[in-house]
Amino acid sequence: MEPQDQTAIVGSRVTLPCRVVNKTGALQWTKDDFGLGTHRNLSGFERYRMIGSDEEGDFSLEIYPVMLDDDARYQCQVGPGQAGEPGIRSKFATLTVLVPPEPPRIVQGDFLVTTEDREIELECVSLAGKPAAEITWIDGLGNVMTEGLDEIVEALPDGRRFTSKSILKLTPKKEHHNTTFTCQAQNTADRTYRSARLRLEVKYAPKVTLTITSGRMTEGAEVRLACRADANPLDLTYRWFINDELMAGDFTTEFIIPNISRRYHDAIVKCEVHNPVGKSEESETLDISYGPRFKTRPKSVQADQGTTVTLTCDVDGNPPPDILWIHEDTGKVVGTSVNLTMDVDKRTAGRYYCKAGVQGFHEIGAEATIMLKGKPTISSALVQFGIPGDNVRLECLAFSVPKPDHVVWTFKGNEVDASDKDYTILEDPLPEGIKSTLVIRESRDQHFGSYNCSVTNPYGSDTVEILLKAQKTFPLLLILVCVIGGVILIIAIAMIIILCQRREKKPQDCRDAEKQCKESDRSSNISDLKMELRTGSSVSNVHCELEYGPDSETGSESVVTRVGMPLAGPVAMPVNGGENIYRYSTEFTEPIFPPKDGQNNNGYVPYVDYSRDFNPPPPTTLGIESSRESLTMPNIDPRYSAAYGNPYLRNSSTSLPAPHATHNTHVSHAVGTPAPPPYTPATRNGAVPQVARLPHSPTTQYIVPNSQPTTVKRGTLATHV
């Protein structure tokens, strides 16, 4: 009979059986391969002895009382016999010694004062158990607490016993006041619970409620947090923290974070409220919604056929971004996770697009390529052209993964030597291959023909024949002539269009000028009328039919001169002999004339029409006694007056005298009658000289220049300026 594994509690009795039949050699027990002796009393080991009898062949090992040191491996051994019988050994038997834990202890003691809504930790410790003790927490209502527990097991220096710790994280409430929390500990060595108790006293600090009032928190928005406290007394002081950092500012019941960014995501905002009893706080973790942003962009890889590759597209966003992998060649979605693992072959090789999106934000994307390693493939044009005498470039474009080892150009069976002064070879690396350019300096006819381009990499090579042909040049002189002729033609067409547009605008300009003349006449004031003379616009002056007499001047410059010019002034009238007569307007009652030819001009009677139909009376001599010389003045009809056609220049109290009447009047300046302005004979701003009308003289008597006796000539008189 061989010993078996056993378990024993410290202080108990253990028997390890061992029976041997036909024993010839010496028998002993070993403990962890250390011999205990061959005698049954096992001297030196007071708690150990072999029980049974030799007759029965029973050599069982008894241990009492069991101690922790007895935890070991035991074996029953029989040595060789005197006649040469071989020795035998039993299998090892392991004795496991169990140790009950010490009574548990609460680190915070048996009484704790805390504040409502403030998280606390209660730690219960049970020492020297083998195996480690199991700790259970029970609240004041008899409920087993399973949440907020952290279990810690630590080995003692002897390596056999263990210390158990249980940390209870608790947020005290008002209901926990004066309740008792119990910590129980046990292991398999002692099924009787051992316990420790703690009574909790909760103070009623301000009861704080922290809420986010701004709704969904999106990057760039304004976040508002409201802190409300129910406390007694109500003498409250508020303080705000972000990740335990005190925020400056006069914040009380509301905390504002303008233009919030993603760095505030998962930040802890805490509102702390004080009153004379104590302080209380409430915290809120910010959940900021923000758009996707790459943490790791996918990178292109090169792989052999049959191997496995992984593309990574790590994107940060909140909520977590939705990721799609799209195979560009087929347009199919091939993955929806951060990593895309593919078996490489011709079907799976190609470009892959990673698209990441968060609802409410713009999508982002990046691409990577799985490049299948293989021999090069040349894709250059088989026929290329060059101009004799110029530098000619032959291009050999090759797709090659991995990069080509070398590129060889041959012409007429001979390899093109880069050291040849006629040739230069340029190589430009491409993302998926190479471009080799053969430059022929100052090409001649013998340089044209068939060239071979060979590209080689570790997986093979490819060769293509490129035919170089001479390209006929277009004469440079003919090109210049065509370009210059085209420019001249465009300029000519542009000038014609501009001239045509100017001609089309002339009638409209005339109508606008005529309208301006009429409106100016209607709104004029005899005392301070200001008129705009455009001396540089020949088109408007000619087509408005304003005749100023032979002395009128129109300049060629577009200069606008603004002069003060009363409408009631002398009007030049051409007479026989080329001499001019100057007349002065007066005030008279407007005669009523029927419309010309039955036409109605909306109350406006053009004076020019009537002046054509009127025959002036023969000239008479008017004697004027004054300081001036006597002047010869014709008998003038009042309808020749400038005030005749303008109702703004007439005085209703003045009667219209009979036509063709003549009077002799002495010129004198009556009191209250202003003297005429001292105009000089020279024209001012295009105006003709003016002379004063005699005071108290009839409307048909005027002062005319003494140096020019004139007669009246039928013609058109200008009454509007």
Explain this structure.
GO terms for molecular function: cell adhesion molecule binding. It is a single-pass type I membrane protein. It is found in: Membrane. The chain is mostly beta strands. 8% of the residues lie in helices and 37% in strands. The strands form 14 sheets. Strands 1, 3, 4, 7, 8 and 9 form a 6-stranded mixed sheet that branches. Strands 11-18-17-13-14 form a 5-stranded mixed sheet, with no helix packed on it. Strands 27-34-33-30-31 form a 5-stranded mixed sheet, with no helix packed on it. A hairpin with a 5-residue loop joins β13 and β14. The N and C termini lie far apart (150 Å).
Question: What are the SSEs and their pairings?
Answer:
Layout lengths: L5 E4 L4 E3 L10 E5 L2 E2 L12 E4 L8 E4 L8 E7 L9 E2 L3 E6 L6 E2 L4 E5 L4 E10 L4 E5 L5 E2 L3 E7 L6 E9 L8 E9 L2 E14 L3 E6 L10 E8 L6 E6 L2 E2 L7 E4 L10 E8 L2 E8 L4 E7 L4 E3 L4 E5 L1 E5 L3 E6 L4 E4 L3 E5 L6 E8 L6 E9 L4 E2 L4 E4 L5 E8 L6 E6 L2 E2 L7 E8 L2 E8 L8 E9 L2 E11 L5 H47 L7 E5 L3 H6 L16 E5 L8 E2 L5 E2 L25 H7 L10 E2 L39 E2 L55
Parallel strand pairs: 1-9, 11-18, 27-34, 36-43, 48-49
Antiparallel strand pairs: 2-6, 3-4, 3-7, 5-6, 7-8, 7-9, 10-12, 12-16, 13-14, 13-17, 15-16, 17-18, 19-20, 20-23, 21-22, 21-24, 24-25, 26-29, 28-32, 30-31, 30-33, 33-34, 35-37, 37-41, 38-39, 38-42, 40-41, 42-43, 44-45, 46-47
